[in-house]
Write a structure and sequence with these properties.
The structure is a homodimer. Chain A is α+β, with helices and mostly antiparallel strands. Chain A has helices at residues 4-12, 17-26, 107-116, 118-144, 147-164, 180-187, 191-203, 219-226, 240-250, and strands at 31-33, 38-40, 48-54, 57-62, 68-74, 93-96, 100-106, 173-175, 207-210, 213-216. A four-stranded antiparallel beta sheet of chain A has the order 2-6-4-5. In chain A, strands 1-7-3 form a three-stranded antiparallel beta sheet. A three-stranded antiparallel beta sheet of chain A has the order 8-10-9. In chain A, helix 1 (4-12) crosses helix 4 (118-144) and helix 3 (107-116) packs across helix 4. The longest helix of chain A is centred in the middle third of the chain and has 27 residues, at 118-144. Chain B binds a DNA duplex through residues 146-147, 179-181, 189-193, 195-199, 211.
DNA sequence: CGCAAGTTTGACGCTGCTCAATCACTGTGG
DNA sequence: CCACAGTGATTGAGCAGCGTCAAACTTGCG
């Protein structure tokens, strides 16, 4: 119900009404972008900080011989690079996987907000540290795990991240606007091998897929086989979400918890 | 010859005498640690920010089945996690590859320094952004390149980073206190395959190795074969210091915010 | 209906892994 | 000064996970 941005940040710091309404105001004015558009390109000198309100984005780089590597996903509520305007130029690009609602925040506006609300500043830094931790976990994922584990691990991560912003339904299903080629560019595998690995994940009743949509049939076992642990997402505030998640793991009919107090 | 920390930071922002001497003071008191020691362990709640003055460190994580992934190297002049004390617990560990001189900086001290010297703050953030960009490049490295390119790329990066702090000699050689197993844990390869790949790099006259020591025989070609570009290290003070940024940074300490001192 | 994008399948081969043995170096103690 | 042990480097043989190529199939959409 509250927007994804607020939901996410309340995971990271306790925010009062005044802070929340400041965050809500920060989301305006948003505009609509098309799937496939780039928000930022490698080499740009970024002027804005982008806040994704709706839809999916992804960070990517190209290798010399044309291989694309996806280095992060952006889901609703994610903010790109609080501090990117400090650097000279972007070393990677940010694109959109789906139609998206995006708010381009002028850097100065964000800085003022953080100066005025220390708790918001804290939450934003926290989120930024989680992004970095996620990069490290992805490195572990690609470096140490085989295809089956890699893809399973990725799905676990997305499942948790989307739960935080309320985008996972009661059947543990969510939208995933990603082709098998995109999955391959994320995990360092070829589309063909991704296909075969997905088949195995389905055969073992861990997931079910429809077009642009995935259902996590057995979250616990999926986490087990992939060595997934939520630690690196740093959601460990003894907040309500944690409890909800735990409940969901035990009995699979619990309602999707809201993040409020 | 200034210390490595100062050398590195002056790459990122123009620092005056007062700022430099503040940085030099920050390096005291340092203490000596042994190779193999851990500075920080996964699960710790870090109290200090560590500054590496001499020797090599590395960040690493373990997978469920015991595989170790090295996710970053720390070389002299590198500072760990300006903002780590914000998070609840470490999601990875930091160890030492060699005997090292380390300064454990209390978080408060660093914060005060950054408040007092905006240019230092700027340089530290810049360095932190470079660390993150490096993670992305490593992901590209492991995800898209084969063994030969991966290792070549890693050597290119280290060559550049060590040059910045004056640790590469006239023959393009430098100390590399890393076993082939360590190289494997960095690149997602087995020690055996690392060995064979190193042989090929030597055979093609790209590098030469002695014990704990490496010489880059042909830097240009090594960069070529691995697709290395130094962009992501953001050493380009070419278009830097743009006036906008200076203004933004100044306005931050100015009378704008209610939360400043 | 027909095209385009994405998914699926099959055959085949290579990169990189496994297991296991041997070799080289360095520091230690007799 | 040499025997020895420990760590790391090197080598070999066999194998499998994943890549490559190419074709067929399925779905969405104008």
């Amino acid at each position: 119900m509250p927007n994804a941005f607020v939901r996410k940040l309340t995971q990271f710091a306790p925010l009062g009404d005044e802070e929340i309404s400041a965050l809500v105001r920060l989301c305006e004015p948003a505009d609509l972008r098309n799937a496939g558009d780039d928000l930022v390109c490698e080499g740009d000198r970024p002027q804005h900080v982008y806040l994704l309100l709706d839809g999916w984005g992804y960070r990517y780089k190209f290798g010399r011989d044309g291989g694309r590597q996806i280095v992060a996903f952006l889901v609703p509520g994610d903010l790109c690079d609080i501090k990117a305007f400090l650097l000279d130029r972007m070393d990677h690009s940010i694109g959109l996987l789906s139609e998206a609602r995006v708010r381009a925040i002028p850097a100065i506006e964000l800085i003022e907000l953080m100066d005025r609300f220390p708790m918001i500043e804290r939450a934003l830094w926290w989120a930024s540290l989680v992004d970095e931790a996620t990069l490290r976990e992805w490195l572990l994922n690609i470096g140490q795990r085989d295809a089956f584990e890699r893809i399973a691990h990725l799905f676990c991560e997305l499942w948790v991240r989307l739960q935080v912003v309320g985008l996972v339904d009661a059947d543990d299903a969510f939208d995933l606007p990603l082709t098998q080629e995109g999955l391959g560019d994320t995990t360092g595998l070829t589309p063909v091998h991704v296909n075969r690995t997905l088949q195995r994940l389905r055969r073992e009743k861990l997931i079910a897929t429809r077009r642009g949509h995935i259902e996590i049939c057995d979250p616990r076992r999926l986490a087990e086989v992939s060595g997934f642990s939520r630690n690196y997402l740093h959601l460990t505030r003894d907040g309500p979400l944690d409890i909800n998640l735990r409940q969901r793991l035990n009995s699979r009919n619990g309602p999707v918890g809201a993040a409020g107090h």
